[in-house]
Design brief:
Helix content: over 70%
Structural class: mainly alpha
Order of helices and strands: HHHHHHHH
Oligomer: single chain
CATH topology of the largest domain: Rna Polymerase Sigma Factor, Chain: A
Strand content: under 5%
Number of helices: 8
Length: 179
């Protein structure tokens, strides 16, 4: 039994406060995922709250044998993002600046420009390629987990990630050569 499964069992036995452990354990990964899909920090916070609330309410339906808790949680997040994006045109979500920056101003500017270009390039990808790429490459999930989250065969995920890489490489190559 994983650490998450033990906490889930406590919650299901009536210890609702134990859910906070799951929130604290998974909030960074969830926010990292949401920032790549939603246009503003407020949207990210609203959806994150909605995701955790949905997870809490539906915790009894979670099946550890089917997927890890993090996979189940990101599946809920993906579906919530699709709902939000269906209601409005997607936009690039600004990433808040680091509070302390030991880099030179030129290096910080170059990095900020690269991430702006990356966000723009990601936003230009078809949604299914962007989702697969972010989950696999930026969130570091195994392709099998991405396939479960996306609800598609493993081969489909592999091709989506490969196509996304090719498109991103083509869009970012001119920026890298200029550096």
């Amino acid at each position: 039994m994983s650490d998450d499964d033990a906490v889930i069992q406590r919650v299901l036995r009536g210890d609702g406060a134990a859910f906070r452990v799951l929130v604290e354990r998974h909030q960074d990964r969830l926010f990292g995922f949401l920032r790549r899909f939603l246009p503003g920090a407020a949207d990210c916070e609203d959806v994150a709250q909605d995701v955790f609330l949905a997870a809490y309410r539906n915790l009894a339906s979670y099946r550890p044998a089917a997927a890890q808790f993090s996979t189940w949680l990101l599946t809920i997040a993906r579906n919530r993002c699709l709902n939000v994006l269906a209601k409005r045109r997607p936009a690039v979500c600004a990433i808040p600046p680091e509070p302390i920056d030991a880099r030179t101003p030129e290096a910080a500017l170059a990095e900020a420009e690269f991430f702006r270009q990356l966000d723009t390039a990601l936003a230009a990808l078809p949604l299914e390629q962007r989702t697969a790429f972010v989950l696999a490459e930026l969130q570091g999930l195994a392709l099998e987990e991405v396939a479960r989250i996306e609800g598609v065969p493993l081969g489909t995920v592999k091709s989506r990630v490969a196509r996304a890489r090719d498109k991103l490489r083509a869009q970012l190559a001119p920026a890298e050569q200029a550096s």
